[in-house]
Write a structure and sequence with these properties.
The protein has 239 residues and is α/β, with parallel strands linked by helices. The protein has helices at 7-24, 43-51, 62-72, 92-95, 105-118, 144-152, 176-192, 210-216, 225-228, and strands at 33-37, 56-59, 77-80, 98-102, 122-129, 139-140, 157-164, 201-203, 220-223. It is globular. Bound molecules: pyridoxal-5'-phosphate (PLP). Pyridoxal-5'-phosphate is lined by residues 37, 39, 60, 81-82, 165, 206-208, 222-226, 237-239.
C-alpha cells in the first residue's frame, strides 16, 4: 500500500476511518486518540499536521524528539513510543507526557529514581511482547503481571495501561489475535486490582492495522506512514 504526501487529506481520511471503526462496534469515537508518529518527519511537516488538528505526536528516539520538541514546543502532547535506554531517562521529564515502552524492572527503577530526584511523576504504559517475535522489546505475556506488581511499588511512576507491537504482516487481520490477547491481559490485570495501576490506555494499531486495533479496544493508535507518507530513510518499526 502506498500513501499520498497530502497531510491534510490523509488526516481527514484517517479520522473518517477511525470514526467508522468505532461506529461499527458501537464504541464512542472520543475514546480513540490518534498519535501521529513523527519519527524521521521534519519539523515543518509536523507543524503542518499540528495545524490540521494533530494533538499528540509520537517519537521513537529521545535525541531526535528532543531536537524537534525544542523547535516545535508543547502545544501538542509528545509521547515516546520507541524503546527507552537507561542513559536517556534523564531527558524524558521535560519532553514526554507518556512513555509507551517500559518493559523491564531496571528501566522502571531508573525512571522512578530520576523522577523522585526531580520531584516529578511520569505516566507509562507497559510494553508487552505477545508473539515472541516481531519486536525484540516488550515483557513476555506470562511475566507481565509480576512486572506490573513490582513497578506499582515504585515511587513517582504511574502505570496507565498497555502497549504492544504485533509482528509485521501484510494482512491487518493477522494482528487481531495479538490485540485480543492484549485486551485479555488488560482484563486480567484489572481483576487483580493493583494499587496505583489503571488500565486506561491501550496503545495498539499502526498505519496498516489501526482499524482492527480499534475494533478490539485500542485507545491510542500510533499512525505514521498513513499520515506523512513513506518514511524517506526507511526506519523500520524500531522500538
Ligand atoms: C514507526 C512506529 C509506528 C508507526 O508505524 P507506521 O506503520 O508508519 O504507522 C508505530 N509504533 C511504533 C512503536 C513505531 O516505531
Amino acid at each position: 500500500m502506498s500513501y499520498k504526501a497530502d497531510i491534510a487529506e490523509n488526516l481527514e481520511r484517517i479520522r473518517d476511518r477511525i470514526r467508522s471503526a468505532t461506529e461499527r462496534i458501537g464504541r464512542d469515537t472520543q475514546e480513540v486518540k490518534l498519535v501521529a508518529v513523527t519519527k524521521s518527519v521534519e519539523p515543518s511537516r509536523i507543524k503542518e499536521a499540528i495545524s490540521y488538528g494533530v494533538k499528540i505526536c509520537g517519537e521513537n528516539r529521545v535525541q531526535e524528539a528532543k531536537e524537534k520538541i525544542e523547535e516545535i514546543g508543547h502545544s501538542v502532547s509528545w509521547h515516546l513510543v520507541g524503546h527507552l535506554q537507561g542513559n536517556k531517562v534523564k531527558y524524558i521529564f521535560d519532553l514526554f507526557d507518556l512513555i509507551h515502552s517500559v518493559d523491564t524492572l531496571p528501566l522502571a527503577r531508573e525512571i522512578s529514581k530520576s523522577a523522585q530526584k526531580r520531584g516529578r511523576t511520569i505516566d507509562i504504559l507497559i510494553q508487552i511482547n505477545l508473539s515472541g517475535e516481531g519486536s525484540k522489546h516488550g515483557v513476555k505475556g506470562e511475566k507481565t503481571l509480576d512486572l506490573i506488581k513490582e513497578i506499582s511499588l515504585l515511587q513517582n511512576i504511574s502505570i496507565r495501561g498497555l502497549m504492544t507491537i504485533p509482528p509485521l504482516s501484510e494482512d491487518p487481520e493477522d494482528s487481531r489475535i495479538y490485540y485480543r490477547e492484549l485486551m485479555d491481559k488488560k482484563r486480567e490485570i484489572e481483576r487483580e486490582v493493583i494499587e496505583g495501576v489503571v488500565m486506561k490506555e491501550i496503545s495498539m494499531g499502526m498505519s496498516s492495522d489501526f482499524e482492527v486495533a480499534i475494533e478490539e479496544g485500542a485507545t491510542l493508535v500510533r499512525v505514521g506512514t498513513a499520515i506523512f507518507g513513506e518514511r524517506q530513510n526507511k526506519i523500520k518499526i524500531k522500538d
